[in-house]
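Reopening this ticket.

The earlier resolution said the output was attached, but the attachment link was broken on my side. Pasting everything inline this time so it's all in one place.
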Amino acid sequence: MSGRWSLRRRLGLWLTLSVAALWLAAATVAGLVLQHEIDEVFDSALQEVAQRVLPLAYSELLAREDGAGAHHMPPVGPHREFITYVVRDAQGRVLLQSSDAEQMAIPAGLAPGFHTTPHLRTYTEAAVRGTVIVTTAEELDHRAAAVWRAVMALIWPLVALVPIALAGVWLTLRLTLKPVLAFRHAIAARGRGNLAPVPEQGLPEEMAPVAGAVNALMERLRGALEAERGFAANSAHELRTPIAAALAQTQRLVAELPEGPAQERARTIAGALRRLSRLSEKLLQLAKAEGAGLLAEAPVPLAPVLRHVIADLDRQTGRAEDIDLSIAAEGGPVSDLDPDAFAVLARNLIENALKHGAPDTPVQVRLTADRLDISNHGPVVPAERMAQLLRPFERGPTGAEGSGLGLAIAAAICRGAGLVLEIASPIPGETEGFSAVVRFTEPENLTAS
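Inline output:
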């Protein structure tokens, strides 16, 4: 799997993270504003409680008997006091206090107004020339808890929002990028001899120039390839007739000349003409391999084609006994590779193995449901030369005659048909030899069905 992230995944992730970050930032700002507002509301409550308690406390003190001590105001019912108060005289003696005032330990000697201690927020109000002092108090933890609950009420929906936003963003991007994905698949489908223009319908405005550039590039590439293939094919085709005529005349000349240097020179010319004829045939095969028409309209079995190729080689060279053929019991692969293209592919690989293999060992030809494996014994090809063997006119360390086009033709057919060609030297599991493996893909129409 590729380490790159798709555009859909990147946009989906970043949009979801952006929404979550904006939500958190909004919750933070809302929390700060809420804290300021809560401080104002609770400060107002402290002040209002002090101002209401002060005249009531003064009346209570006047109604008491002399010498009465601190008086606790009992609660009306069981509840928790968030705001408590204490009434003191000028000397700091407690005259009156609410039921939970002792638990808060409200400090004495505070000047009138608001004060903040490490644990409390207080408000102090004095009356009767400073002889009656009322201090109201609230725990700071109560305020912090109120702010925290409010902020969490804003943050908790984010837990449900993130997967919902991610699903919504993913669905939106899927629908929005559907033309782009179709464009990508259309480009990926090009190859295997298909250089048709890519459809531009439905693409976003930003992608339309890309599609136009791709189509223009493929048009130039198609023109260049057609010109190159046309030149090779025409040259090879036009050379066939004069080469064949020259070879026939040379062979007649060999038959008519007496034994001697002249006849030997004629034989040399005939051999050169035969090599030139084979080279022109290989060039024509290479031109066809690099062109279109490598795929059949319907999948066909390849085993009969391989048997026909070997029978044809035997008729021309008489070397069928040098080929050890093995076809899987199920009958070999069924592929959408064109039978003629497979015949050219198999013939070049087998001819290459016969030509460069050890003369006293047979060429192994194995055809299974997913691969064609051809191997021959012989000297090991250096690793630095292996990749070069798939190029035209490149040859390994051998003294055998050849044009250096066999593997290049096979590689061109595999590239154009979407197959995989693997070459190795030595043969896997052995110490010498050369192997070529063609791996077949499942036909598209069989996959679709």
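Reporter confirms the inline version is readable. The chain has eleven helices and 13 strands. The mean pLDDT is 78.
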